[in-house]
Specification:
- Helices cover about 30% and strands about 25% of the residues.
- The two termini are about 30 Å apart.
- It is α+β, with helices and mostly antiparallel strands and about 525 residues long.
- It binds 2-acetamido-2-deoxy-beta-D-glucopyranose (NAG).
Length: about 525
């Protein structure tokens, strides 16, 4: 790309000085992230890990209304680890049940894919609008987000990525995250393919306050008429209702409201105030690589820029936030810890492997769901049930992908490549039971040792956190926590007890910073080799 090379030089000489000065004030600029929840979440995680970020957002401000509506169980776990969930919980509405309604009555209610989730605290969707999430992220990123910055040029060389915006703002960085939506300028500019299918389905979507004699309940309701399931009602925060309506022929707000009334009959419905009305046509597309230069570049794609699909199953925002959680620690590792090039490549390329495979599956699940809206509600719900692992987020796994960050192994309810179970522990610091996820810190590997105290690994201690969990003392004994008596090698890890630990247990689980299990080891050397295989 010779023309791009010329542009880079121009950008470097003419602007990097000014821009660089701006960024050098707070350390050398490392990242540019482009707005929206995926970009904002990545930016916040990076910022917290001490990586300098500059976020360019094409929008003039935060989103006010509409868009995505639910955080699944896995995303809630991520937000908990990031210390953000407590702020969102009181603003959202919990929902763990899907029901179907036809011919004037409820036909079925199902929630086993939510209530049956094991090893998790929040077994529900948290219904909450995307604007609330963006506002929360923006408020924590003051001074790092530049609004109204449309990217007009992007180029990368061996060392840097150069971006110019419509206002003439120029940024040079080591990596660029393109989270700039389905029509991603960056993806197009770099010529990364974005291919797939486009079923001809146009949906209307409304956020509205209704008055109705319908028996209101905090459930996702799929309405069936004439053997199809073209209306869904999602309960939301503030008493708001979100409706998805698949129409035939002309799509308008008026026709969507008429369809809702027809499906909810014989109950009456009045639309009191509609906050947001939009339409979307279903596209199912995925980028050919989530990394520029076919996996060897410095530009990474995430969120809608990397994958788009129908909203059925609520996976869009959740998959984007999961991309962010999967990516930020990798970028922090490669920029802060002076890793050898091969190690950096492994970390960055495994992002593409793991997240692109996940995105393909997400697209398949959403595709099955959106097509089943043309079928009976019970078939639609059966498809939800079959694909619940993706809808709750808890079944997304990196097992069997040959990821260099997963060393196939399993023991008890721990499996390398699967999500780390959230388990109940009892700590010495606080009385009573608590959850493992509430004790971890984003950005470090967790060396979780069961029934023993691990030797610290001096070389990579800066990226490790140590947690030891011992068997509970027998009932009635007033032994102190076993661990407190042990030689702890002057190790300042956290220590807990748990009744799921057996007296003979003695193993170590390495949990990656994105809360996926990397390796389960039965000897000390094993886990240290695993860490070395990533950091060296
Ligand atoms: C499911 O949701 C209902 C209604 O909000 C709640 O009462 C119930 O405790 C939830 N079940 C589980 C297992 O979380």
């Amino acid at each position: 790309m010779s023309t791009s090379s010329e542009n880079i030089r121009e950008v470097d000489v003419a602007i990097v000085g000014g821009l660089f000065a701006l960024c050098v004030l707070s350390g050398s600029l490392t990242y540019i992230v482009i707005g929206g929840p995926t970009g904002l979440f990545t930016g916040l995680l990076l910022h917290r890990l001490g990586v300098s970020v500059c976020i360019l957002d094409a929008k003039a401000g935060s989103l006010d209304l509409g868009r995505a509506d639910a955080l699944n169980a896995r995303t809630q776990q991520y937000l908990e680890v990031a210390g953000l969930l407590d702020e969102l919980l009181p603003l959202g509405l919990k929902c763990n049940t899907s029901s179907t309604f036809a011919d004037g009555e409820f036909k079925s209610r199902q929630n086993k894919w939510w209530v049956g989730i094991e090893h998790a605290l929040h077994k529900n969707f948290l219904m909450i609008g995307q604007p609330v999430i963006e506002a929360m992220l923006n408020s924590r990123l003051k001074g790092l987000v530049y609004h109204g910055q449309d990217v007009v040029n992007v180029a990368e060389d061996e060392e840097h990525v150069h971006v110019t915006t419509s206002t003439g703002f120029k940024v040079r960085s080591k990596y660029l995250l393109a989270a700039d939506g389905a029509r991603s300028f960056v993806r197009n500019a770099l010529g990364i393919d974005f291919t797939g299918t486009k079923p001809e389905m146009l949906w209307a979507v409304l956020d509205t306050f209704i008055e109705s004699d319908f028996p209101v309940c905090p459930e996702i309701i799929t309405f069936q008429a004439h053997g199809q399931s073209r209306v869904s009602w999602i309960p939301r925060e503030r008493g708001l209702s979100r409706f998805y309506v698949l129409l035939e022929g002309e799509v308008s707000q008026k026709r969507a409201e008429e369809s809702i009334k027809k499906h909810m009959a014989p109950h009456s419905v009045e639309f009191k105030q509609t906050e947001w009305y939009s339409t979307f046509d279903v596209k199912e597309r995925i980028a050919s690589s989530f990394i520029s230069k076919n996996g060897n570049g410095r530009v990474l794609l995430a969120g809608d820029a990397a994958h788009v699909h129908s909203v059925n199953g609520g996976q869009g925002l959740n998959t984007g936030l999961s991309d962010a959680f999967a990516l930020a620690w990798r970028l922090a590792m490669v920029t802060k810890h002076d890793l050898p090039e091969a190690a950096s490549k492994k970390l960055i390329q495994s992002y593409d492997l793991e997240r692109r495979t996940t995105a393909k599956n997400v697209i398949d699940v959403a595709a099955a769901l959106v097509r089943d809206t043309m079928r009976e509600a019970k078939e639609y719900v059966a498809t939800i049930e079959r694909n619940a692992g993706y809808i709750t987020g808890m079944g997304v796994s990196y097992e069997g992908l040959n990821s260099p960050l997963v060393k196939e192994s399993s023991y008890s309810f721990w499996t390398a490549g699967a999500r780390c179970p959230d388990v109940v522990v009892t700590g010495s610091e606080q009385p009573g039971p608590s959850w493992l996820y509430s004790h971890v810190e984003y950005g470090k590997f967790i060396v979780l040792s069961i029934g023993q105290v691990p030797h610290p690994y001096m070389k990579y201690q800066h990226v490790l956190q140590f947690i030891s969990i011992f068997a509970s003392p027998p009932e009635g004994s007033n032994n102190p926590a076993q661990g407190e008596d042990r030689d702890t090698h002057s190790l300042s890890g956290k220590m807990f007890r748990a009744d799921w630990v057996l007296p003979e247990d003695n193993y170590i689980i390495v949990i990656r910073p994105d809360m996926y299990i990397g390796y389960i080891a039965t000897c000390e050397q094993g886990w240290q080799d695993y860490i070395a295989s990533i950091c060296v």
